[in-house]
């Protein structure tokens, strides 16, 4: 079934000029890019995006990092897009990521881990709606 997911090329990867390589890989793997935007989040906007993690010890550091510079936010579409993008990203911790995944190739640490992807249909709906309006996705 065709599905949509939210992907973020995080500030660490944008700063290191890796966005082009990551977007090329997204296209090579067969995703349709349905929407895309550069966005420099405020701390408050990053806290809203990651609200589900607000009790975690890394919440402050994560939201500070995510608001430290511009990110590139995309809506990706493909059959089984949520799982497909998470597989392509690899494990959250780059030390545990498989060879050939985005995080193995481009991440520097569990926090500066290059990319984000929604983890389930309900979070994908929330995250896509956080950045894009319905008319951006016609
Ligand atoms: P992401 O897929 O964007 O979802 C939540 C983020 O929190 C995750 O990627 C990591 O960047 C970050 N994160 C998860 N676990 C830890 C951790 N133990 N320490 C620091 N950051 C973490």
Describe the protein's topology.
Blueprint lengths: L1 E8 L1 H5 L3 H10 L3 E8 L3 H7 L9 H8 L4 E9 L1 H9 L12 H5 L8 E3 L3 H11 L7
Antiparallel strand pairs: 1-3, 1-4, 2-3
Bound molecules: adenosine-3',5'-cyclic-monophosphate.
Fold and architecture overview:
- With 138 residues, this protein is of the alpha+beta class.
- 40% of the residues lie in helices and 20% in strands.
- The chain contains 7 helices and 4 strands, in the order βααβααβααβα.
- Strands 2-3-1-4 form a 4-stranded antiparallel beta sheet, with helices on both faces.
- Helix 3 packs across helix 4.
- The longest helix has 11 residues, at 121-131.
- The two termini are 18 Å apart.
- The relative contact order is 0.25.
- The mean pLDDT is 98.
- Bound molecules: adenosine-3',5'-cyclic-monophosphate.
- The site of adenosine-3',5'-cyclic-monophosphate has 8 residues, from loops.
- Residues 53, 58, 62, 92, 110-111, 113, 116 line the site of adenosine-3',5'-cyclic-monophosphate.
End-to-end Cα distance, whole Å, is 18 Å
Strand residue content: 15-25%
SSE ordering: EHHEHHEHHEH
Report the helical percentage: 25-40%
Strand order of the largest sheet: 2-3-1-4
| Bound molecule types | adenosine-3',5'-cyclic-monophosphate
Number of DSSP-assigned strands: 4
Number of helices: 7
Explain briefly what this protein structure is.
This protein has 138 residues and is of the alpha+beta class. The protein is built from 7 helices and 4 strands; from the N terminus they run βααβααβααβα.
Task: Describe the structure using short key phrases.
single chain; 138 residues; alpha+beta; four-stranded antiparallel beta sheet; 7 helices; 4 strands; binds adenosine-3',5'-cyclic-monophosphate
């Amino acid at each position: 079934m065709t599905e949509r997911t939210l992907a973020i090329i995080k500030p660490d990867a944008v700063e290191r000029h890796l966005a082009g390589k990551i977007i090329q890989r997204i296209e090579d793997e067969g995703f349709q890019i349905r929407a895309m935007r550069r966005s420099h989040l405020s701390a408050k906007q990053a806290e809203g995006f990651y609200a589900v993690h607000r009790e975690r010890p890394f919440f402050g550091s994560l939201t500070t990092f995510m608001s430290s510079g511009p990110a590139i936010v995309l809506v990706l579409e493909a059959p089984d897009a949520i799982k497909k993008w998470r597989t392509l990203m690899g494990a959250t911790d780059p030390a545990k990521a498989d060879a050939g995944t985005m995080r193995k190739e481009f991440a520097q640490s569990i926090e500066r881990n290059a990319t984000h992807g929604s983890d389930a249909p309900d979070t994908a709906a929330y995250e896509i709606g956080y950045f894009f309006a319905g008319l951006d996705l016609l």
